[in-house]
């Protein structure tokens, strides 16, 4: 199912202090890759944590498929929005296949056994992310790029219409960065997911993203590819 992620008059921040950004109105469209750009400290990670429900909005709403995110139960939320963070889980003796299978927890429960249908979904997610040959390797033996693709495969196995990624190309070499960006663009287009990610890799962002959101001076606005290219040139 194709769903848009809508931000309605959203304010983001922590506690009772001043918001990092406010009066945010934006739409992340299903079937598109949207990049959030901006200087360090402007609130990109805070924005993404608010979109996933990790922290509450200070004001306004996050709406997915016509439903307010804050009104969803934890299970409903995890079936709607999947998350890929910069840091991958530090676990020992877990294979890549087992890590991806964890993406089925919103559907099976923590102790749920994978059905034949679940295993097909896991296998397909790994194939789409290009990590099916890594299924039996422990995650600690994988390169940074391989681990990041495994985490994207886990999010795919979660089968959510919206994917949120916080700096998914951080700490990767250039080849792995380009492969990850190409994969996310393909997933957005082919799987019709609404994918939003933060990034400092503006060059790769320009060549792969469909839309660009600039977070700066307490506001979020959509900018054009040409405007991003101008930022790169300084």
Folded structure, characterized:
This protein is of the alpha/beta class. Helices cover 37% and strands 24% of the residues. It has nine helices and ten strands. The chain has helices at residues 44-52, 74-78, 96-101, 105-108, 116-129, 144-157, 174-191, 202-208, 225-233; strands at residues 5-12, 21-28, 32-37, 59-64, 67-68, 81-84, 162-166, 194-198, 211-216, 219-223. The strands form two sheets. Strands 6-7-8-3-9-10 form a six-stranded mixed beta sheet, with helices on both faces. A four-stranded antiparallel beta sheet has the order 2-1-4-5. Helix 7 links the parallel strand 7 and strand 8 (194-198). Helix 5 packs across helix 6 (144-157). The longest helix is centred in the C-terminal third of the chain and has 18 residues, at 174-191. The termini are far apart.
The count of strands amounts to: 10
Question: How confident overall, as mean pLDDT?
Answer: 93
* Beta content: 15-25%
Lateral arrangement of strands in the main beta sheet? 6-7-8-3-9-10
Give the class from helix and strand content and strand pairing. Answer: alpha/beta
End-to-end separation? 40 Å
Helix content: 25-40%
State the order of secondary-structure elements, H for helix, E for strand: EEEHEEHEHHHHEHEHEEH
Q: For the report, how would you describe the main beta sheet?
A: 6 strands, mixed
Rg (C-alpha, Å): 17 Å
Number of contiguous helices: 9
Q: What's the shape?
A: globular
Low-confidence stretches: none
């Amino acid at each position: 199912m194709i769903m848009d992620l809508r931000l309605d008059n959203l304010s983001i921040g922590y506690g009772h202090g001043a918001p990092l950004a406010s009066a945010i109105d934006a739409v992340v469209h299903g079937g598109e890759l949207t990049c959030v750009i901006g200087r360090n400290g402007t609130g990109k990670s805070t924005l993404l944590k608010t979109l996933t429900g990790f922290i509450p909005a200070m004001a306004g709403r996050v709406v997915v498929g016509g439903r307010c995110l804050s009104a969803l139960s934890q299970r409903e939320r995890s079936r709607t929005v999947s998350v890929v963070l910069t840091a991958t889980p530090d676990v020992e003796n877990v294979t890549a296949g087992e890590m991806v299978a964890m993406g089925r927890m919103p559907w099976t429960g923590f102790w749920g056994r994978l059905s034949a249908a679940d295993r097909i979904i896991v296998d397909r997610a790994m194939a789409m992310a290009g990590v099916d040959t890594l299924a039996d390797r422990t995650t600690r033996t994988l390169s940074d790029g391989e681990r990041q693709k495994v985490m994207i495969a886990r999010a795919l196995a979660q089968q959510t219409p919206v994917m949120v990624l916080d700096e998914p190309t951080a700490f990767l070499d250039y080849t792995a960065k380009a492969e990850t960006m190409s994969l996310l663009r393909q997933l957005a287009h082919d799987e019709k997911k609404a994918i939003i990610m933060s990034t400092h890799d503006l060059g790769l962002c320009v060549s792969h993203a469909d839309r660009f959101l600039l977070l700066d001076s307490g506001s979020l606005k959509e900018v054009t590819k040409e405007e991003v290219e101008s930022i790169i040139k300084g």
